[in-house]
Design a protein that fits this description.
Layout: E1 6-10, H1 21-29, E2 34-42, E3 48-56, E4 68-73, H2 87-99, E5 118-123, H3 125-139, E6 144-150, E7 169-176, E8 192-195, H4 206-218, E9 224-228, E10 233-237, H5 239-245, E11 310-316, E12 321-323, E13 327-335, E14 342-350, E15 361-369, E16 377-384, E17 393-403, E18 406-411, E19 416-419, E20 426-433, E21 436-442, E22 448-454, E23 461-467, E24 473-478, E25 486-491
Parallel strand pairs: 1-4, 1-5, 2-4, 5-6, 6-7, 7-8, 12-19
Antiparallel strand pairs: 2-3, 9-10, 11-13, 13-16, 14-15, 14-17, 17-18, 17-19, 20-21, 21-24, 22-23, 22-25
Length: 492
């Protein structure tokens, strides 16, 4: 499952993006994914400079998948002797780059990184960096879809901020160990906390093995290896590690960790407790009841100016198969902390996961009044699908919210199949010559027909599928066995 979003990954003390981050980013969507680097550099005179660059991937304007990976590199200020620079400083310098349409990436053409849902991933001191990024984004009204802590370890010597999950974070998960004597993580209130107690092999320290554990939930191959340039070593996830590091519920890493990202589409609302204590749904924001109950499991923001309007949740709640002239329903949750303003909300059908490449079709538009920082707007949306605003096919569906000169997008995890009609197809079957059978399907242009075959009317095998561009379709095949043969045509 893909959905347009931005995944930002950052490191901790004495590290950079050239070690484990590049391999992790490459495994998320492949080496040809749209990938950028934000680098915070020492300018040599007691200050800093930020550079942005594209590392890989097609042009955003024509890619079928607008998922973006950002590698945040602050290595010049992450060394043992880089005193005087805290994680709050790093986040304060980077936040404007994420929000700015003048972010140094020409191909974004006036768009910002925060137009899309955000997934922030930070290891060690980087856990404090992403916590502070969420706080500073929240101060501008920007919701973060997910924040993932990997053995978070702020260092007071540097003035690092404590790790919190703020009120504008929808989901939080935290993977930590406390086996190392000096560098270790801790539970984070408001997150789904997974305590790791078995991390033998891999790196020479358990602290680094936490990000390797998470890597193993992205790259599910066994064995899998990558070269860590910082350690100058090849690091592997072996069969023995698959068996020891993840419990039976987590199924060798396939059912935990990155599973709960929007990209992978795992069930964040699950009440299951994989280790017998923490529930997966504990990481859901429960200041409002999004479906996981109500609980004060978030830290209040010191400030929120409500500059950005937000789409928090968007789902197709009606049927996944419909025809022109029928209606459908969706649900939406949004917040714009501007009580006296109105945001414009638009719903589009799309043919991929990129709202920028021009193949989207507007099916609904309405205004929604702003609210306060203590309110969320929940609503049901009726969708009318017609030949004038849609084409037959399997579509993604996304919402777009605009207000105050800013825009954010959110794709629903559900797909929608649209046909011209749901009128049942009919069949004419003829034995042409010898063992040659022809099946004439009488159906309508714009319908998708699955043709099934059976020898006993019980066990069916689908032998062909066709999106009809004209009325009718003929299918031929040769019988290779004797006995009865039955056919059926199904719209789906």
């Amino acid at each position: 499952m893909f959905g347009a979003g931005v995944t930002l990954i950052t490191h901790g003390l004495n590290s950079d993006v050239g070690g484990w981050i590049i391999p992790m980013a490459n495994r998320i969507l492949g080496t040809n994914a749209i990938c950028y680097e934000i680098a915070v550099r020492d300018n040599g005179s007691g200050g800093h400079v930020i550079t942005t660059s594209k590392l890989s991937g097609p042009a955003l304007s024509n890619s079928p998948n607008a998922e973006i990976i950002i590698k945040l590199d602050w290595a010049d200020f992450a060394g043992t002797f880089s005193l005087g620079t805290s994680t709050t400083d790093i986040a304060t310098w980077v936040t404007p780059v994420l929000m700015s349409a003048s972010n140094g990436i020409a191909e974004l053409k006036g768009k910002t990184f925060v137009d899309f849902p955000l997934h922030l991933i930070g290891h060690s001191r980087g856990g404090s960096v992403v916590s502070e990024l969420a706080r500073l984004l929240g101060a501008n009204g920007i919701w973060v879809d997910q924040i993932t802590f990997l053995d978070p370890h702020p260092v007071s010597l540097y003035g690092d901020a404590n790790v919190h999950v703020y009120s504008t974070v929808f989901y939080a998960d935290n993977y930590f160990q406390d086996m190392d004597l000096i560098t270790y993580g801790a539970p984070v209130a408001g997150a789904y906390n997974r305590h790791l107690t078995s991390l033998a092999d891999g790196y020479n320290d358990n602290h680094s093995n936490v990000h390797l554990w998470y890597h193993g939930t992205i790259d599910l191959s066994t064995p899998t290896s990558y070269f860590d340039a910082d350690d100058n070593a090849t690091i592997s996830v072996t069969e023995a590690m698959r068996q020891a590091w993840w419990n039976s519920y987590e199924h060798r890493g396939t059912n935990t960790g990155f599973t709960y990202s929007l990209i992978r589409g795992g069930n964040r609302f699950s009440p299951d407790a994989p280790t017998g204590t923490a529930r997966i749904a504990d990481g859901i924001n429960q200041l409002w009841n999004f479906g996981a109950g109500s609980n004060a499991n978030r830290v209040a923001l010191p400030s929120n100016n409500g500059t950005w309007a937000n789409l928090i949740q968007f789902h197709l709640t009606g049927t996944n198969l419909m025809a022109f002239g029928q209606s459908n329903t969706a649900s939406i949750a949004l917040q714009w902390a501007k009580p006296t303003s109105n945001a414009t909300v638009q719903i589009f059908l799309d043919n991929d996961f990129n709202p920028y490449n021009g193949n989207e079709q507007l099916v609904k538009q309405f205004t929604n009044p702003g609210n306060t920082t203590n309110q969320i707007s929940f609503g049901a949306i009726g969708l009318g699908i017609y030949a004038t605003n849609a084409t037959p096919g399997v579509h993604t569906i996304f919402a777009k919210i605009s207000g105050g000169g800013h825009t954010r997008y959110l794709y629903a995890p559900e797909l929608l199949t649209v046909m011209s009609s749901l009128a049942a197809p009919r069949l004419n079957i003829a034995l042409i010559s010898g063992n040659q059978v022809r099946v004439d399907v009488q159906a309508l242009a714009g319908q998708r027909v699955f043709l099934g075959r059976s020898g006993n009317l019980v066990a069916w095998q689908y032998v062909a599928t066709n999106w009809l561009s004209s009325n009718g379709w003929s299918y031929s095949e040769t019988r290779t066995t004797q006995g009865n043969r039955f056919y059926k045509a199904v719209l789906q």
